[in-house]
Amino acid sequence: MYVLAALLPPIGLLLNGQPFSAIFNLVLIVFCAVFGLFFHVLLLVPSAHAVIAVHMKREDRRHREMVEAIRRHGPPPGYRAP
Q1: Rounded Cα distance, 78 and 55, in Å
Q2: Is residue 1 situated within a structural domain?
Q3: Could you give the number of structural domains in the chain?
Q4: Which long-range contacts (CB under 8 A, 24 or more apart) does 39-43 make?
Q5: What is the mean pLDDT of the chain?
Q6: Residue 24 domain-assigned?
Q7: Using H for helix, E for strand and C for coil, what is the string for 6-29?
Q8: pLDDT for 75
């Protein structure tokens, strides 16, 4: 998913279930294509946005799964509440 997000950012975001981020990324691509002619580093911004968005979505998913597992099965053995 990360490779797809880096090479084809809007498609990677759509396949990851983030349609609003994909639309924002398309706008970002247009903006960066125009100004990237003068500031070449701007051409990397849409890919960086997509990779970061995919990573954040994955971390959010992992966090929700962990919280649900703790709710379902209780805290791990030896856990002391502060």
Answers
A1: 31
A2: no
A3: 1
A4: none
A5: 92
A6: yes
A7: HHCHHHHHHHCCCHHHHHHHHHHH
A8: 84
Residue 82 in tokens: 């502060």
C-alpha span between 53 and 32 (Å, rounded): 18
pLDDT tens-digit map of 18-37:
999 999 999 999 999 999 88
Per the CB < 8 A criterion, the answer to whether 58 and 17 are in contact is no
For residue 47 the two structure tokens come to 């890919």
- The pTM of the full predicted model, rounded to 2 decimals, is 0.82
The torsion angle over the Cα atoms of residues 24, 29, 31 and 34, rounded to 10 degrees, is: -170
Query: Residue 79 falls within a domain, yes or no?
Result: no
- 24 lies in which domain range? 7-73
Q: Which whole-number Å values give the CA distances from 37 to 20, 27, 47, 50, in the listed order?
A: 26, 16, 17, 21
**Nearest CA to 2 among 42, 41, 65, 59?**
59
Q: How many residues does the chain have?
A: 82
Any domain includes 80? no
